[in-house]
Specification:
The chain folds into 2 domains: about 1-40; about 45-265, MetI-like fold, CATH 1.10.3720.10. Helices cover about 80% and strands about 0% of the residues. It contains 11 helices and no strands. The protein has helices at about 1-40, 55-85, 90-105, 105-120, 125-150, 155-160, 165-180, 180-195, 200-205, 220-230, 235-265. Helix 1 packs across helix 11, helix 2 packs across helix 8 (about 180-195) and helix 5 (about 125-150) packs antiparallel against helix 8. The longest helix has about 35 residues, at about 1-40. The radius of gyration is 22 Å and the shape is globular. The mean pLDDT is about 85.
């Protein structure tokens, strides 16, 4: 009976995996087919107003970069505190809140930033978009740093202290160096997560047809523009949306592959 049950569960698991892979392949083949057919070199030279994607790609990376400058230091310091300094119920509370924030819908974060940043500033802006992305990034970095530091053997900490090093020197020179590969992989994956986000930017940065470095105004966003172009009735706009989707997918894929490469190289 147990062998029969095991075979049934194995069959159902295999069928479920195949169905999931089939849908994934369908999506990827459609994306690659339509994206490549709409892709041409001028997309990287012209802005959206001229039928290109240059301003959108640059704008997306600028907002994600600013979000990383905010989220990575805060997240790493919080993760180091949880693993190396904190104790008791407050640490458990912070970990629980971090886990909740990681699973929070991104559109809720966008609505929150809209209320505390966009409304007081009387308009959407690149600043608000960057803040929304950084809020999404912080709990991921906290979780990654906390988990990676927990894998460092306690003997390394004790050896550093036995040699007379202060606690912060042990953390910087020994513990973080021992966990740097795992932490770097987590940072890359968190960057890949935020660079493909759309929902929070709908409320915070919107998008722009023009190239801009003024973060106090509506800022060009690749993901928001894909949403807008896909809903446009003209075929040229939909073709541009397919090309932008393909480019965004390739960017996220390359970042994820880089993270996996770093992990395997260490192994």
């Amino acid at each position: 009976m147990r062998l029969l049950l095991n075979k049934i569960v194995l069959l159902l698991s295999t069928v479920s995996a195949l169905i999931g892979l089939a849908f994934l392949a369908w999506i990827l083949f459609t994306l690659v087919g339509k994206g490549l057919s709409s892709l041409h070199f001028s997309l990287f030279l012209n802005d959206l107003i001229d039928g290109g994607l240059r301003n959108l790609i640059v704008g997306q990376f600028i907002m994600a970069g600013i979000a990383s400058l905010i989220g990575i230091p805060l997240g790493m310091m919080a993760g180091i505190y949880l693993q190396e300094y904190g104790s008791g119920r407050y640490v458990r509370l912070i970990r629980d809140l971090s886990d909740i924030m990681m699973s929070a819908p991104s559109i809720v974060i966008g609505a929150f930033v809209y209320a505390i940043v966009v409304v007081p500033m009387h308009g959407t802006s690149g600043i608000a978009g960057s803040i929304a992305l950084s809020i999404m990034m912080i709990p991921i970095v906290i979780n990654t740093t906390d988990n990676m530091l927990s894998l460092v053997p306690r003997e390394l900490r004790e050896a550093g202290i036995a040699l007379g090093a202060s606690k912060y020197r042990v953390i910087l020179d020994i513990i973080i160096k021992a966990a740097k590969v795992g932490i770097m992989t987590g940072l890359l994956l968190s960057f890949a997560r935020i660079i493909g986000e759309t929902a929070p930017l709908l409320f915070t940065s919107e998008t722009s047809n023009y190239f801009s470095v003024d973060l106090t105004e509506a800022y060009p966003s690749l993901t928001v523009s894909i949403y807008a172009l896909a809903n446009d009735p003209t075929s040229s706009s939909r073709d541009l949306a397919w090309a932008a989707s393909f480019i965004l997918t390739m960017m996220v894929l390359m970042i994820n592959l880089l993270g996996r490469y770093i992990t395997r190289k260490k192994g």
